[in-house]
Write a structure and sequence with these properties.
Helix 4 packs across helix 5 and helix 4 crosses helix 7. With 206 residues, this protein is of the alpha/beta class. It is built from 8 helices and 5 strands; from the N terminus they run βββαβαβαααααα. It catalyses: Endonucleolytic cleavage at a junction such as a reciprocal single-stranded crossover between two homologous DNA duplexes (Holliday junction).
Length: 206
């Protein structure tokens, strides 16, 4: 399954394409950021973003598209630009009869890190880990787009135990069935367990 993730933004629009196998192992196909100048008229900026998205759609031919769901922010101007770019992305996908998934930032964070309140640094680190990249994709918009694509491919109904584990905790609780976790959540658990095992015994005893 090939998924195009779009982190909508008028100045920077993150683009990420991943292939995800039947074992849910993601592989990087493409990552980039479409940029537009604030000095340009709004309609020209939207046209540049539309052309960039359409070029990626035509070159990489994804099976589906994942877009970050727009939500209210204090900065109305920012959310308006985000909403306008989201509309451009949805239109481009609809023209190609591609299914679209809308995901909130907390849903993406939970799928990628196992924690719905993870910061951008944690998300970027886990994106690099699951895609086996030598470095975190830059800027953050690029990593966010890849996270969206991975989240969309991995998105499955989670049991109440998993849902509870991703609220207010950076790791799954012991009662969570490992078979219900995404590969990234398993990687997060393994990384934290490895960090605990590496600590000196006198520190663990505190």
């Amino acid at each position: 399954m090939r998924v195009l993730g779009i982190d909508p933004g008028l100045t920077r629009c993150g683009i990420g394409v991943v292939d995800v196998s039947s074992t849910r192992t993601p592989v990087l196909v493409h990552v980039s950021v479409i940029t537009t100048s604030p000095d340009l008229p709004l309609e020209e900026r939207l046209l540049l973003v539309a052309r960039g998205i359409e070029a990626v759609l035509d070159e990489h031919r994804p099976d589906s598209v994942a877009v970050e769901r727009v939500f209210a922010q204090h900065n109305v101007r920012t959310v308006m630009g985000t909403a306008q770019v989201s509309g451009v992305a949805l239109l481009a996908a609809a023209r190609r009869s591609l299914p679209v998934g809308l995901h909130t930032p907390s849903e993406v964070k939970a799928a990628i890190t196992g924690y719905g309140q993870a910061d951008k640094k944690q998300v970027g680190a886990m994106v690099a880990k699951v895609l086996r990249l030598a470095a975190v994709p830059k800027p953050a918009d690029a990593a966010d787009a890849l996270a969206l694509a991975i989240c969309h491919a991995w998105r499955v109904p989670l049991g109440s135990a998993v849902t509870g584990a991703t609220s207010g905790s950076t790791r799954p609780r012991a009662s969570v069935d490992p078979s219900q976790l995404t590969p990234a959540q398993l990687a997060w658990r393994a990384a934290e367990q490895g960090a605990v095992a590496a600590r000196p015994a006198h520190k663990l005893a505190r």
